[in-house]
Amino acid sequence: ALTVGVLALQGGFAEHLSCLRKAAAHLEVKFNMVEVRTPEQLATCHALVIPGGESTTLSLLATQSGLLGPLRDFVKVKRKPTWGTCAGLIMLSEEASSAKRGGQELIGGLDVRVHRNHFGRQKESFVTDLNLAFLAESLTDAMRAPPFPCVFIRAPVVDKLLADNVEETSPENGADFQSLPSPATNNQTLAQGSKIEVLGILLGRHASNKAAAAAETARSVSTKGDGDIVALRQGNVFGTSFHPELTEDIRIHLWWLEQVVHASMK
Ligand code: GLN
């Protein structure tokens, strides 16, 4: 059996556990889903989810519980599959634009900068359908990837890539990287040495870039535009700005558990 942990210091861990259990029921492999609050519990895990919540609080609680070092080791040295949603994505980024000097400690792993609270306050929360082409990779859901209902709550977006090894995405992802802020050319900054794969781009009226916002709907995949990056992967680290655990749609949890299975077979 594979043990999947959910960091349970704060935030939406119960919702993730419930989605993971539902998704696991579709797979042959047996899983143990566990709440992680101590380094000992983390040590039993093959993979980890870091939920949404509030990243400054998460960071403080991780430091106080002696988990920050073990979490960095888990993600960046042992390179175990780790998925962060919202505040979890912030924790897994190398830089957060609003982190004060000497303030928020991050785990890192994704060579990106995130912009916290990109869309504003709680009342600016929204749900939008996004086309997530990577879901078609799913073995159990092969070739069928209807738009995913993405819940954004005081969400961050990735506003800068710190590595120059970004994977070219296929046209159906609707991404155009020409117009992204140019990444640092210094490979020394690479946390992972793996390519950054942009897996989800926000288009439509919520996008901050005019061209992307002018795209008719967030699900129009043919429109080229530099929308906001809201899902990405770099090696073992996966991040989403939005909250799949707050929907009935378990496809992302299923897809990620499949990645965990693949990683365990290497
Ligand atoms: N705004 C929060 C932060 O900066 C994240 C919000 C969330 O996880 N829903 O940490």
From TrEMBL:
**Binding-site residues for L-glutamine, renumbered to this chain:** G53, E54, S55, R116, I153, R154
Task: Indicate the enzyme's highest-level EC class.
Answer: hydrolase
Cellular component (GO) terms are:
cytosol; glutaminase complex
Q: What Pfam families does the annotation carry? A: SNO
Catalytic residues in the record: C86 (nucleophile), H243 (charge relay system), E245 (charge relay system)
Under which EC number(s) is this enzyme classified? 3.5.1.2
Catalytic activity, per the record? L-glutamine + H2O = L-glutamate + NH4(+)
Q: Which residues form a coiled coil?
A: none
Q: Which Gene3D superfamilies does UniProt cross-reference here? A: 3.40.50.880
What keywords were assigned to this record? Glutamine amidotransferase, Hydrolase, Lyase, Transferase
* Signal peptide interval: none
Q: Which GO terms describe its biological process?
A: pyridoxal phosphate biosynthetic process; pyridoxine metabolic process
Molecular function terms, GO-annotated: glutaminase activity; lyase activity; transferase activity
Q: Does the keyword Hydrolase apply?
A: yes
Q: Give the family per the record.
A: Belongs to the glutaminase PdxT/SNO family.
PANTHER family, per this entry?
A: PYRIDOXAL 5'-PHOSPHATE SYNTHASE SUBUNIT SNO, PYRIDOXAL 5'-PHOSPHATE SYNTHASE SUBUNIT SNO1-RELATED
Q: What is this protein called?
A: glutaminase
Species: Pseudomassariella vexata
